[in-house]
Fold these 2 entries.
Entry 1:
Amino acid sequence: MPTEDIDRAVTLYATGHSLRYISRELAWSVTTVRRYLIRAGVELRSRGGNKNKPVPQDKIRIAAHLYRKGLSASQVGEKMGIAEVTALRYLKLANEPRRTNKNATHCKWGHPFTPANTVIFQDGKRRCRRCKNKKNREWIARARRAAESVG
Ligand SMILES: [Zn+2]
């Protein structure tokens, strides 16, 4: 393993990135990342992190700033190297009002919100029918595979 990759992993971890994030970034497995970090003398944080840990104010500000510039919560997460749910938590802490997608004409995968392709939920939010059906099919396929593996 090249030393600069290990240095990079150590730096990323020290700046608050997760093992999973580093694993994606360096194309190593999570297990490999963990092994090299431990070997480099890094003390690993507890798994899943501490939810009560105060979030640095600058991170909250950065998240709110990026979101206001028009990035989606998932794009904010990507840019900051954090999960989308974490980005959403930061935005909430920043009291940043969530944008609704009621003006969007297409779902995030580019399917049009035509009447036939739109499902309206009880909360009034719209969902793309094609994406919803795809998710359902995937879920059923997964459940079926799980059932088969049990026998
Ligand atoms: Zn869609």
Entry 2:
Amino acid sequence: MGKKVIIIGAGLGGLSTALRLSTRGYQVEILEKYHQPGGRLNQLQKDGFTFDLGPSFFSMSYEFEELFKDAGVQNPLEFNELDPLYGVYFSNRKQPFLIYKNLEKLAQEFKGIEEKMAAKVEGYLDQAGDIFHDTEFRVVKKNFASRVAYLLGLTKVPLKHAPKLFRSMWSELEKHFESEEAKVIFSLVAFFLGSTPFNTPAVYSLLNYTELKHDGYWNVKGGMYKITEEMVRLVEERGVKIHYRTEVKDFAYAKGEISAFIDQNGKQWKADLFVVNADAAAFRGKILQREKYSAPRLDKMDWTLAPFTIYLGVKGKIDNLYHHTYFLRDNFREYADEIFKTSMIPDKPYYYVNVSSRSNPECAPEGCENLFILCPVPDLRFKSDWDDREEIADNILKDLSERVGFDFAQNTLSRTILTPLEWRDKFNLYQGSGLGLAHGMNQVGGFRPANKDEVFGNLYYVGASTVPGTGLPIVVISSKLVTERITADHGIVPKRQLQLQ
Ligand SMILES: Cc1cc2nc3c(=O)[nH]c(=O)nc-3n(C[C@H](O)[C@H](O)[C@H](O)COP(=O)(O)OP(=O)(O)OC[C@H]3O[C@@H](n4cnc5c(N)ncnc54)[C@H](O)[C@@H]3O)c2cc1C
């Protein structure tokens, strides 16, 4: 029998680590505070509609393939490639820009707006692709023993990329494109990292490469929650037990190791090893009481934007919406400068709409659609009172009504709103930040909370706020990295021995 591991959290990070470790003969149990698995990759069922709670698409689909291969199974999920990747509406233009991977089709969308678009995108993505491939195995998919080791690792990345550390993504885009529209659209990825394109380093143009050239964007047949369901099925087949409504509140230790984590009822959960899938920074502060992660110090860190999400079941079909569609305005710079630090939500905010019933009709009753609307908002440090939630939602829906020509007021059958308060309380997201710690150069690699604890020898971390970072495929990579750490420290049960048991 392998060592016993307790994982705290049944998010994608926890589940994929459970899958990898149980495949290697470890005995795994998971403690989860919510009543069902998935963390942010969760599901809401209401009034006959089914909604994915958070993620609606992903890049780097091959990371999931790698995970299933690692577990010795066929990928049980059916992935659909998004084409177009997404649509973008600006307020001063009736037609959306459809963003295609096919450069000829993309150039058509920018006809009369950005000349020689295909050649320009090609040039931009060639450089972005170089950064991606020069850092993928040297930096991103690698465990570093210390900050010094990380900094040494960086020296292996070709020097030609160095200037892109010092200029912003926006200035990089300015070097390649003339139109405001092209620059704004390609800079949207910066918001996923927790910053604006005006202060995100240009190296992150690699994300444009992942979306537009490398692997594109994908969703899952049957809805994104299928990922969670299939992962749970696979781990349970391997004997992993998941305890829901079990929140870790405290810990016990002896001889430099964690001896138990303690839940809200005072029950002690003992194991040889522990993996924390809760936020790696906040957990160190709140549960382990580390000074470096005390509330004032956590508040000084950079966090990604918080989600304000609306789940809408509507009667009828809405034209002019794609699998995922951004609704922007024409005050991008002003918006980007304000959005991280304001306590006021503008009457006409920027938002994103996803209609999963388009590709999964079973998610809505006949003749109806399910809408997921995500508006990135300041986290609870900047706006703690969300009593204006209905008003904010009404403003967004009024704007959407005008832009797609659909009467939401008359046709809404189901409406649920989650503010950063609910996102915080459901999954312990720090100050309601949606994607966890941001990805400035001072919070990535050796500067991000490590996946091996600084104090306790048997404690590890996986997920969005440890290495390498946030987003579904990156969290899957995180599970690979922590598994490598654990097996390097504690070994693998030989297959032969496993079969004899
Ligand atoms: C609205 C929204 C939209 C998003 N859209 C996308 C997208 O389209 N594509 C994409 O790639 N990414 C997207 N993301 C990001 C993605 O969801 C995350 O990066 C990823 O799901 C994080 O997984 P995780 O396992 O690290 O954390 P989580 O999913 O947060 O899992 C951690 C788990 O730990 C549990 N937990 C926390 N504290 C405790 C405790 N003390 N005791 C017990 N259990 C505990 C939580 O309840 C949770 O289940 C989105 C995120 C949000 C919020």
